[in-house]
Design a protein that fits this description.
Layout lengths: L2 H9 L4 E6 L3 E6 L2 E7 L7 E4 L2 H8 L4 E3 L8 E4 L7 H17 L3 H9 L31
Antiparallel strand pairs: 1-2, 2-3, 3-4, 4-6, 5-6
């Protein structure tokens, strides 16, 4: 399991966006609210996400999983190793994190997300084609009539 796997999974959730923040952290957000973080550079933890209060206690008793620095009071956990959780369990927990964040959003935002179709992430080309921009045409000035 690697960051690409996490990225693909998180971006499959409706209206999830990705951002690089704090210099080296890949942040996954829905409606501007974070639901998962992944370190892009070597660090003490590589993946952080929100957990339910029950899951928080159970997960933090496992080896390789700790209360997330700065976010533990909000019941976030951090994985110290990439093999701390099996893939199927991690996928379920990341979806639960997304769902918990969505549940706290305003009703209008939640309704818009519920009607959105899941998307698959775009593949980024190594050599993107240059964008062509449309030129603005200026209307010809009329000569004043005499």
């Amino acid at each position: 399991m690697n960051t690409d796997w996490v990225r693909e999974l998180c971006l499959s959730f409706p209206k999830t966006t990705e951002h690089i923040q704090w210099g080296e952290v890949l942040v996954f957000k829905v409606a501007g609210k974070i639901h998962a973080l992944s370190a892009l550079q070597p660090s003490n933890t590589w993946l952080t996400f929100k957990a339910s209060p029950e899951n928080f206690v159970e997960l933090t008793e496992r080896p390789g999983i700790i209360p997330a620095p700065y976010l533990a009071r909000a019941k976030w956990v951090a994985l110290e190793t990439r093999d701390a959780l099996p893939l199927d369990e991690l996928a379920r927990l990341l979806r639960e994190s997304y769902d918990m964040v969505v549940a706290k959003l305003p009703k209008k935002t939640r309704d818009a997300l519920a009607s959105a179709k899941p998307r698959t992430p775009r593949k980024i080309s190594k050599n993107p084609a240059p964008r062509r921009t449309a030129r603005k045409s200026h209307p010809k000035k009329k000569k004043p009539s005499r």
